[in-house]
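@channel sequence for tomorrow's demo:
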Amino acid sequence: MLGIIKRIFRGLKYDAFLTLYKALVRSHLEYTNSVLNPHHVQEIKALEQVQMRATKILPSLKNKPYQERLKILKLPTLKFRRLIGDMIETYKMLAGVYDNLVTPSIPILSESRTRGNSLKIVNRRSHYDLSKYSFCSRVTNVWNNLPEDIVTAPSVNSFKNRLDKFWSTQELKYNWQVEITGTGSRSFSFIVKIFLKGFCYSNNLLLLWA
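structure tokens (generated this afternoon):
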């Protein structure tokens, strides 16, 4: 499809290129993202390379770095868009936009005293990649760390706009090699707490011996 665009259309302007790319190329790359979401680096890179080649069609951008081309075109990485898509699908399920009979069950914590939002999803433990990277598992940490005003948005469009604004400064938006920040990690937080407790305990012992 990229070859057809390159052969047929000459001297494309940015707007014309974006229209063609989004309609004829990116739509195929994002087909069934909620189900077929790659997590291996090689698979993520293979998809991203299609967009890398596509943005080089424009002569004025051909010799610029990939991140710079994306910023000029205001075109997010495919990895970033997949994450946004996951959040939108999660919102639709929890807001009742979809029929509950045909969507996976996403249990909500009955009571949460930690920071985050009032619609936190129960964090299920997974031992195998098939379960770990399934939709319900991979969206949990990201969703649980979204602010209250985003998850309780009154409509899908409102949710999209608030999420776009909240993630507007994320490095992942134009750099596919990094991960989303601010999602939190229970295991990491637990390790940090243990380390701090041990550090404080060691300091107290030193003070006693001094």
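heads up for whoever presents: The first helix runs from residue 2 to 8.
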